[in-house]
Structures are given as structure tokens and as C-alpha cells.
Specification:
Blueprint lengths: L4 H10 L12 H14 L3 H21 L5 H21 L1
Length: 91
């Protein structure tokens, strides 16, 4: 579940963040980030870290899942059943 920007800002104040990350941004990108952060009522760092963290979690989750078309799903289940059946016969 996604945390809100205000909650992220509070976490930033309460929790020490010893890992440093720094990057440069083009002026128009920095302007947009500052504007969005101001609209959310948080600092630039809290805004960027929250957005980057959410994107990282989504990326990891997307890569940890496998989606199959129905035909492939059925073939996969048949292969599992066949493997289980073969293993049972061997015992």
C-alpha cells in the first residue's frame, strides 16, 4: 500500500537516513519536482525519495511475477501434473 507524501515526510524527520544518494537534474526537471513537492507540502528530498521508492517497489514486484496466457498456463499446469505423476510412480 502506498504511503502518502505527508507520511513520508514525517518518516524522514523521525528516521535517520545514513545512506546518501545524490544526482543532478536539468533545470526544467528540478522546477517541476520542486513545484510538485510544494503542492504536496513536502520537501524536494522527501518528494523525490517517495517517488523513487514507490517506483523501485513497483519495478521489483513486476519482475518477481510471471504472467501466462491461458494456453501457456494450462500447459504449465499439465507439466506440473505430469512431473508429480511421474514422481509418484517412482515411489
Amino acid at each position: 500500500m502506498r504511503r502518502g507524501m505527508a507520511e513520508d515526510a514525517n518518516i524522514d524527520r523521525e528516521e535517520k537516513a545514513p545512506a546518501r544518494m545524490s544526482f543532478r537534474a536539468r533545470p526544467h526537471v528540478a522546477f517541476v519536482i520542486r513545484q510538485a513537492a510544494a503542492l504536496e507540502g513536502v520537501g524536494d528530498t522527501a518528494f523525490v525519495m517517495s517517488a523513487a521508492y514507490d517506483a523501485a517497489l513497483e519495478t521489483i514486484a513486476r519482475h518477481e511475477r510471471t504472467f501466462l496466457q491461458q494456453e501457456d498456463h494450462d500447459a504449465f499446469l499439465r507439466a506440473l501434473d505430469d512431473a508429480f505423476s511421474s514422481a509418484s510412480k517412482a515411489l
